[in-house]
Amino acid sequence: MAKGLIFGQSDAFKCMHLPPDYQRDVIFKKELNSLLGTILKGEKNNFANLLRLGLGGANPPIPPPKLSDIIGSVYKAMDSRFEQTPVANIPTDSRITIQRQARLAYIRTMINLNRLRRIANPGQTAFPSFWDDIDADLETRRTKNTRCSINVWTPSHRKGSSTLGWYENR
Q1: Is residue 48 located within the same domain as residue 74?
Q2: Confidence at residue 57, expressed as pLDDT on a 0 to 100 scale
Q3: How far is residue 139 CA from its own chain's centroid?
Q4: Which of 38, 61, 89, 126 is the most exposed place for a label (fewest CB within 10 A)?
Q5: Same structural domain for residues 75 and 112?
Q6: pTM of the predicted structure, to 2 decimals
C-alpha cells in the first residue's frame, strides 16, 4: 500500500525523490522494503500500546470485536450477496480482499482509539466523533507523514550508490 502511494506520485516527485530506473533497481527495492518494514513495525507497536491503554483495572472495558466478526457482520448487513451466508464464513470468501479487510481494520482502529480516549478522560464531555478522527487522520496522511520525512533517495545519490535516506522530524 505504501509503495503504491510512493509509485503513484507525479513524475516530478519521482524525478526528485526516486533514482533513475527505480522500478528495476533491485537494491533500491530491497532498501525501500526494509525502510517501510521498519516504519510499519514501529506503527504496529504504537498501536498495540494504544490498545492496551485503559483496558486494565477492576472493571475493564468490553474489548473491541474481532476483525473477522466485524467483516462478517458488515458484509452480511450491507452486501446482498452475503445475506444467506453465515457470518463466520464471510471473512474467508475470496471476494473479501485483503484491501477491503484493511479498510475495515483501519475503521475499527480509529473507533477504538476514540473509545480509549473517552475512557481515559471520563470527565470530558466534548469529544470529536470517530468520523472526525478518521477525517483528521486521513488529512494528515494525505498532506504529511508526521512520524518522519522520507527522502527516498538521498540528494547525494550517484550512479551505483544504494543509500536510502530518511530523517526523523525533531
Answers
A1: no
A2: 52
A3: 13
A4: 126
A5: yes
A6: 0.45
- For 118, the grid coordinates are 473517552
SS3 string of 93-162? CCCCCHHHHHHHHHHHHHHHHHHHHHHHCCCCCCCCCHHHHHHHHHHHHHHCCCCEEEECCCCCCCCCCC
Output the pLDDT for position 159: 43
**Residue whose C-alpha cell is 484493511:** 102
Alpha-carbon dihedral angle through residues 40, 150, 100, 103, given to the nearest 10 degrees: 80
The phi, psi pair for 111, rounded to 5°, reads: -65, -45
Rounded CA gap, 166 and 148, in Å? 7
Residue 124: φ, ψ to 5°: -80, 135
Q: Can you tell me whether residue 22 is helix, strand or coil?
A: coil
Domain that holds residue 104: 57-127
| CB of 110 closer than 8 Å to CB of 47 | no
CA angle 12, 14, 15 (to 5 degrees): 65
